[in-house]
Design brief:
This protein is of the alpha/beta class and 542 residues long. The chain is built from 22 helices and 17 strands. Helix content is 42%, strand content 15%.
């Protein structure tokens, strides 16, 4: 069994336990182990053979014992027992947005529904609305969730693909004969989701490189192997393709493979205007002669342009900007000095205020805002007003310990309630250093209603930042139907900042609306929404 298959079993156990109504901490333990197995770039079988399963993050003795049973016998008695209690088909119902384990259990037990088709039929015929805790609105949301599920793709989060891609590039560079190794495609352009990992190498010995690539220890399965192109599957289930190109043609190959398609079309038009023809092999002159480009910078320079960063290559005016000398300078981690959205053990974070502050210092930050969830968000252990004031004292104590090395701000991620009001009265918000307003609930309200909730927050004199404005969770929850143009225009009037939430599951505000915010002069705030020190590193994606 590979990493992904073992992780899938533990995800399934967590789902079944949730439907059964088990303790949340037990289900979290299985899910945390599954997450770490899924992202583990080394083969889980190697850990098992060396007796080092407990060295995998999130895998304690109990879960290690279950992995051992799985890899020894090919099945797990605990899972088989759970399957006798709950039909496996019921687990798939959890994939429907806004349909949690309690409701899935209710629908299964009361109506005997075990499949998405049966669920859709029941919702369409009005049979869900009479169940306890449901109603016509819930029924409509479930139907909308089923349709959203049908629209999902098998793409991969940027935050999952990028680390593996960087590790792969590192070992590609070590293969004898590889002169250069680079990413291509949507991953190099840092789109929020990608299809797979595209890789290119410059080499004079492609057959040797391809052989080393497909035989690497991180490769679980070879999908295809050729003289200049091979495809493989990693142990975590992600796929990668490798193309080998002659070093003297590598620049044009890399430019072409990076895309986007529309950027490349526009760049070829620019070349034709100059009497040149651009392909993945070379720049061809009008007399048929070739200009070879070993580096991508040479491609753009030959066409009379400065090098255009991959992140900008989406045919949104970047070639004209390059021609006019108006390309923007991209923000880098070196520019980041503050994190204004972080959680601790006071709400749903996993580390103390001091631990988060020390992690911020280690990353060179000068400012950290502690912003827990507010009282109505019970699922995230939101703070009451009394809790908030008690936390203020701890923030001050940590500040005294740290001295001038880091400025701590005491804030809140205040919930914008379903009725449009904020979760705390104004006099409480006025006590805080920073106030972030956010939507987490009632996200399927009509467009006008959910937009008005955000507008209420933007116009509140105590709100400083609007967090993850559409509340989307990639592959898990569709964005709320928000009129972002209206929200951005209101923010431009009030000076309230809009957050670019850097968590790879969110990346919200997205790139298109970020550009619109910049046009309107709105202050933008790149935050990680960190719940652990490691998540502070999400700033890179923001």
């Amino acid at each position: 069994m590979n990493n992904q298959e073992v992780a899938h079993i533990f995800y399934t156990i967590a789902d079944l336990l949730e439907i059964r109504g088990e303790d949340v901490y037990k289900t979290r333990a299985y899910r945390r182990a599954a997450d770490n197995l899924n992202e583990l770039n080394q083969d889980v079988n190697e850990y098992w053979r060396q007796g080092k399963l407990t060295e995998i993050p999130g895998v304690g003795q109990a879960i290690a014992k279950k992995i051992d049973e799985l890899l020894t016998h090919g099945q797990l008695e605990f899972l088989e027992k759970l399957k006798t209690e709950i039909p496996m088909e019921v687990v798939k119902l959890l994939e429907v947005p806004d349909l949690g384990p309690k409701r899935v259990a209710l629908i299964w037990r009361e109506l005997g529904i075990t499949s998405l088709a049966e669920l859709e039929n029941a919702a369409s015929s009005g049979r869900l609305r009479d169940l306890p805790g449901l109603g016509s609105k819930s029924e409509a949301r479930i139907l909308a969730g089923i349709q959203a599920l049908k629209r999902r793709s098998d793409r991969i989060l940027l935050g999952k693909a990028w680390p593996l891609a960087q590790e792969t590039l590192a070992w590609l560079q070590e293969i004898p004969g590889v002169q250069n190794a680079q990413l291509g495609g949507s991953l190099r352009r840092m789109r929020d989701t990608v299809g797979d990992i595209d890789l290119l190498v410059a080499t004079r010995h492609p057959e040797l490189v391809m052989k080393a690539f497909v035989e690497h220890k991180q490769v679980a399965r070879v999908l295809s192997q050729g003289a200049t192109k091979s495809s493989i599957e990693f142990h975590n289930g992600m796929n990668a393709q490798l193309w080998a190109h002659p070093p003297k043609r590598f620049g044009t190959a890399l430019q072409f493979a990076t895309g986007s398609k529309n950027h490349n079309v526009r760049l070829r038009e620019h070349a034709l205007f100059q009497g040149l023809s651009l392909s993945d092999q070379a720049i061809t002159l009008s007399d048929g002669g070739e200009m070879l480009c070993a580096a991508e910078e040479q491609v753009y320079a030959t066409l009379g342009l400065p090098w255009i960063p991959p992140e900008l290559r989406e045919d949104r005016g970047e070639i004209k900007a390059a021609r006019d000398g108006k390309l923007p300078s991209l923000i880098t981690l070196a520019d980041m000095t503050a994190e204004l959205h972080a959680h601790t053990t006071w709400s749903d974070g996993g580390y103390t205020i001091l631990e988060m502050a020390q992690a911020a210092l280690q990353r060179g930050l000068r400012v950290l805002a502690i912003t827990e969830h507010s009282q109505s968000l019970g699922v995230a252990r939101g703070l009451s007003v009394n809790d908030l004031r008690r936390q203020r004292r701890e923030v001050q104590a940590v500040q005294d310990e740290l001295g001038d090395s880091l400025l701590l701000l005491h804030g809140i991620e205040v919930e914008i309630r379903a009725d449009g009001a904020l979760d705390y009265p104004d006099e409480v918000l006025a006590e805080l250093d920073i106030v972030i307003a956010a939507l987490h609930t009632s996200l399927r309200q009509p467009r006008a209603q959910v937009t008005q909730r955000l507008l209420n927050a933007v116009r509140n004199p105590h709100v400083d930042i609007i967090a993850h404005p559409t509340a989307r969770l990639l592959f898990k929850r569709e964005a709320a139907d928000v009129d972002l143009e209206a929200v951005l225009e209101a923010s431009a009037e009030t000076g309230v900042s809009i957050e670019i939430n850097a968590n790879p599951h969110r990346l919200d505000l997205d790139d298109i609306h970020t550009r619109r915010a910049i046009e309107l002069g709105i202050p933008l705030c790149i935050n990680t929404d960190a719940h652990s020190p490691q998540e502070l590193d999400y700033a890179f994606y923001g």
